[in-house]
Structure of ABC transporter-like protein:
Amino acid sequence: MDASSPTPAAIELIALTKRYAQGSVAVDGIDLRIAASSYCCLLGPSGCGKSTTLRMIAGHESTTSGDILLENRNITGLPAAARGTAMMFQSFALFPHLSALDNVAFSLKMKGVDKVERHGQAQNLLERVAMGHLSARKPGELSGGQQQRVALARALITQPRVLLLDEPLSALDPFLRIQMRAELRHWQRELGLTFIHVTHSQEEAMALADTMVVMNHGRIEQVGSPHEVYNRPASEFVARFMGGHNVLDTTVGKVAVRNDHIRLAPVEGAGWPATVSDVEYQGSYVLLGLQLDQAEASDKVSVMLSEADFVQTPYHPGDRVGLTWAPEQAHSFGAA
Ligand SMILES: Nc1ncnc2c1ncn2[C@@H]1O[C@H](COP(=O)(O)OP(=O)(O)OP(=O)(O)O)[C@@H](O)[C@H]1O
């Protein structure tokens, strides 16, 4: 392949559409190319169509129209087991009464592979995820992280090209969730597979993804690296959904300004006059809520100050301030 060729796509969606029987369009003609060996997160609010998209890729949901290609092979009409994808579910969904080894070997058993062969393959995979020594344990005798590795090995036993993960971390407590997501990222790199991970958490997607796909109402709002999406939100929806931004109505139209890029000055000086309405201490930073003089009552602005800056110039509810920002920090939509 010459240097100008794009990275090969593991998955390509072409005008993919899902209309459920009741007539509502869950996925509305989306086009998407997911690079091989990348970590892709499908992100969006509840009902935006991300799970339906994942289930169509998996073959657990029929398509209404459009195509799904896996490494240039059209898999749209294939049954789930023949696609080259595997799925990892919420909380890993391991069988509690089976050992780690039997959990991993389960799908081979269903295919009629004999015991010696399936146990051999399962043991190999458990060793690849550093779980070989615990293969006789049942899920209840394993830590959350160890269970996740068993679930990973179980998904990998069918030798998929693409691993699909449907909110795998959402049922875990916050501490374990952060630990587990680092593990997922580690194993994706280690195995060199393509991961497509559905989440409604901006933070999770930013921490994991090479490519984030932000969806809304069955359509893709933006595709990009976490840095691109956070620094250049393509639409007002993306700016608001990602958080950490203020959408401000200026003379040049609506712009997004990150809450750590807004500066506060005495109200007599330049800037938009506002009143501090609340002050939240967050540890390394302080979050201020402000009410703009000229905005509608509901339109609040948030400003993030480093703890050091706040200690130097503290603010209190009721303080009057002027807001300013550097022109290059104001990002207008459609100019990405
Ligand atoms: N089996 C179904 N029959 C009818 N409508 C459905 C079905 N499954 C999903 N929908 C609808 O399709 C739309 C997209 O649903 P989907 O589950 O893909 O969204 P989501 O972004 O994954 O949401 P969540 O984060 O809540 O799981 C929603 O409006 C939903 O109500």
Summary: The chain has a mean pLDDT of 91. The chain has two domains: 9-231, 247-332.
